[in-house]
Amino acid sequence: MHMSRVLDPPRPEPGSGAMFDGIAARYDLLNRLLSLGLDRRWRRRAVAALPRHAGARVLDLATGTADVAIEVLRQNPDAEVVGLDPAPEMLRIGADKAAAAGLSIELGKGRAESLPFGDASFDGVTIAFGIRNVPDRDAALREMARVTRPGGRVVILELVEPGTGLLSLPARIWVRHLVPRLGALLSGAREYRYLQSSIERFPAPADFVRQMRAAGLEVVETRAMTCGACCLFVARPLSTEPGPAENPGGGS
Q: Whole-number mean pLDDT of the chain?
């Protein structure tokens, strides 16, 4: 007699759209709690680095629940914003948030490594807390450079391993130990422990700047924030107009 059994569904690939769909309902709350509310300030600073003229066209990659896309329109109501993400449930929540705020944002499923847009299509491109999850980071950076107009800006916001300094030790303890444990506890998903390992694997800011340049982006500003736990990278496509000198640190 043969016995049949129900196989467990495959676990979502760490960092994949399916993984983030699994925590989509709790994603915004987790961000607020795990960053002690600082993620909103970080996003505001990232969006402030984008072109601000009327009619500016902005692409937000790994848009998730559309926090950055919504912030773009708060700071520049005349902008045209497009958001892409590989996680449909995250996009659904983002669309509901935008509608509740009375904002018009074009949201769609897509991957940063292969953008469905022509060359020089956007004045600004953003990705917040998403570049470390992209399987082919080099391809994504090349795509960002390709779709950004001359004189435009690419703005990347990412969690990084805190560096050295008086407050770096507690920041490292928070990122390495408390964030993944608290995230797993609050979300009920073991996949959230992936966060800590993904931050550890992300390049140091100086190395990431070199990776961006190799992909066709000239970094004009880097800003370490909150004891170095978060870093803002502002770049332009190579061979465009002169811009401000690079700032290797500063901010809070």
A: 81
Distant-in-sequence, close-in-space partners of 247: CB < 8 Å, separation ≥ 6 = 221, 222, 223
Q: Which own/partner pairs from 188-192 qualify as long-range (CB within 8 Å, at least 24 positions apart)?
A: 189/22, 189/23, 191/11, 191/12, 191/14, 191/19, 191/22, 191/23, 192/23, 192/30
**Helices and strands counted in the chain (H then E):** 10, 7
Q: Do 143 and 114 meet the contact criterion of CB atoms below 8 Å apart?
A: yes
Report DSSP state, residue 98: H
Residues of the chain with pLDDT under 50: 1-16, 240-252
How much is the pLDDT for 229? 81
- The structure tokens 């066709």 sit at 216
Q: In this structure, are residues 141 and 211 in contact, taking their beta carbons and an 8 Å threshold?
A: yes
Rounded to 10 degrees, the C-alpha dihedral 188/190/196/198 comes to -120
pLDDT tens for 10-66 read 444 444 455 566 665 566 667 666 667 788 999 999 999 999 999 999 999 999 999
Residue with tokens 């990776």: 211
How far apart CA 235 and CA 204 sit, in angstroms, is: 17
Whose CA is closest to 83, among 54, 60, 64? 60
Q: What is the pTM of this model?
A: 0.81
Going along the chain from its start, the domains and CATH numbers come out as: 17-237 (3.40.50.150)
3-class state of residue 47 by DSSP: helix
Alpha-carbon span 250 to 228, nearest angstrom: 9
